[in-house]
Amino acid sequence: MTALPPGEAEGRLTPEEREARVAERRAARQAEREARRRAAREARLRAASLERAAEVPAAVGEPLDEPAIVARHLTVKFRPFTERRPSLRRHGIAALRRREKPVVAVDDVSLTVFKGEALGIIGSNGAGKTTLLRVLAGTLPPDVGEVEVFSREAPTMLSLGAGFNRKLSGRRNVYLGGLAAGLQKSQIDAMFDDIVAYSELGDAIDRPTSTYSSGMFARLAFAVAIRRDPQILLLDEVFAVGDQAFKKKSAETMQRLLADAGTIVMVSHGLSRLRRFCHRLVWMDHGRLMAVGDADEIAAQYLSFLGISEEEAAED
Amino acid sequence: MATASSSLSLSRRDGWGTYLGELWRRRHFAWHVAMGGVRARTSSTTLGLLWWMLDPLILGAVFLLVFGVILDVRRGDPAYIGFLLSGLFAFTYTRTTMMGGGNSLTSNSHLIATQRFPRMILPVASVVEGAVAFLFSLVPFFLIAGFAHGDWPGSFTIVLLPAFVFHTMFNLGLSLLVAQLVIPFRDIGNVVGHLSRIWMYMSPVIYPLDERLRNAPDVLVKILQFNPLAALLGLYRTALLGRPTEAYHWWGSAGWAVGLVLLGVVTFRRMEHKLPRYLA
What we know:
The complex is a heterodimer of chains A (316) and B (280). With 316 residues, chain A is of the alpha/beta class. Chain A has eleven helices and nine strands. Chain A has a six-stranded mixed beta sheet with strand order 5-6-7-3-8-9, sandwiched between helices. In chain A, helix 5 runs parallel beside helix 7 and helix 6 packs across helix 7. Chain A is globular, with a radius of gyration of 28 Å. With 280 residues, chain B is mainly alpha-helical. In chain B, 40% of the residues are buried. Chain B is 73% helix and 1% strand. The two termini of chain B are 34 Å apart. The longest helix of chain B has 29 residues. Classes of the chains: A alpha/beta (316), B mainly alpha (280).
C-alpha cells in the first residue's frame, strides 16, 4: 500500500477507522505528556537532592576520647492516670484509684556522648527520643538511672516548638530566655547586641514576637541559645533554621562548636541530614536503645527495619 | 574548656542550702517573669498600664453600687467606702495569687521542659505580679477614700508594711499549696474559683466582723476569727483607715503567714521533680 497524504487517506477511511485513529493519536500524545512530566519530576528531585547535599553540612573533626555526657540505665515511665493517685489518696479519695499500665518512654538506656561529637537520635514517633533528650538536659528527672555531665554547666536545650512569651517584644524575650537559662542580667546586657546581630532581626527586636514569622522566631531562639557559647547543645527537631543564608550560618556555628570540643546531641526526623552531620547515630524504638554506632551503618539498619529503600528515604 | 575532672550530676536533687541559694541567685528571673506578666496582660490595650488602676477602680464601683447603695450594708458606718475598698483590694490580691501559682506553671510549661531552674520561681513570680497589682490599686484607693471621707495616709500607715509582708507570705504559701493540688488534678481548679467567692463572703470584706459578732456564740466568734483573712484585713484596716487593732489581728496574721509559707515551700519542693510529667 502506497503512502497517501494524511487528508486523502483519512478521507477514504470508514468512520470507525477514523475514530480509532483519533483515539490512537490522543493516547500517544498523552503518553508523551506523561513521560515529559516524569522526566521533569526526576530532574526536580535530582536538583533538590543536590541542593540538599550542598546545604547540609557534613560532620567535622573526630570526637575526642573524653566523655561529655555519661548516662547510666535511664528509665522514664509515665503513668498518665496513676500519677494522680498520690494526691487523691492523700486527700482521702482512695476510691478513685486506677491502675493503668505505665508507659515506658525510656527503657534502661545507657549512653556515653564524647566531646567534639555530634550524636543524632533517630526513631519513629513515640520512640522516646525527646524524652531521652529532656533527661539528658536535666529537666526531666529519670525514674531510674543517672546522668553525669562533664562540663561547667548543664547542657543547653533548644526546642523551637517551645517559645518565649509571645506577647512580649523580642528584646524582653531575649532577657527572659537568658535568665531562664541561668545567666545574670549583666551577662545578657553584655551579649545583647551580639545576639541581635546574629539573629539579623534589626529593628524588629522591639516588636512583639507574636508579629514575627516562624523563621524570625527560630532565628532569635537559636541566637539566644548559641551566643551563650554552650559546651553541650541539645537540639529537638531543630537543625539549620531560617532562610538559606541563616541556615548556612547556623550550621557553620554548630560545626565550630564541635571543632572546639563541644558536643551536640540532636533529635530529628530528617535522616539524611542527621546522617551527614552526625558522627554517630542512636536508634531508639519503643523506649529501647536498638543500636548505636557509625552514622551510615545505623541509618541503613534503621531503613531496612522500616522497609524503606534508600531512594525513598532520600525524598524526605 | 572545662577539664574532665569537673562533673555535674543532673539526676541528683540538690540539698536545701543549694536550692535556696539558687532561688536567690535567680531572683532577677522571677522579677522578669512577673514584669513580663504585668506587661503582657495590658500590652494590646490602648490605656496600657493604666488598666492596673482602672481595674480595681471599676471593681470597687460595682461593689459599692451593690453593697453600699442597693443592699445598704453600711449600717451607719460613715466611712463605708474605705472599709469596703480596703477589704476588697486586699482580698483580690489573695484571690488572684491563689490560682496564679498553678497557672504560672501550666502557662510556662515550655520553660519547665527545656530549662533547669528551681520551679518555685514561677509561683513566686505570680505572687510578685499579684503584689504589684495590689500596690497599684492602693492609688485609686487613697484617691477615693481620701476624697470621700478624708481617709488619707497617716502615721498609722506604717502598719501597712507588716500587713503587706504577712499577707504576701500567706499568699505565697497558699499559692504553692493550691498549685500542688491543681497541677496533678486539674478538676480542683474548677472548684477553687467558687471556693474563693464563698471565702470572700465569710471574711470581713463587705461587712465588719466584730460588730456582727457582738451577740454571737463564743465558738462561732473563734471560728470566724480563725480565718486568716479576718486577721489580715484587721491589720489592713488599721494601716489604711486608722481603725483600732485587736490582738488576734497580729498573732493570726503572723501565725498564718509563717505557717503557710513554710508548709507551702517544703511540700512544693518535695513534689517539684514530678512537675514535668504532669505538664508534658
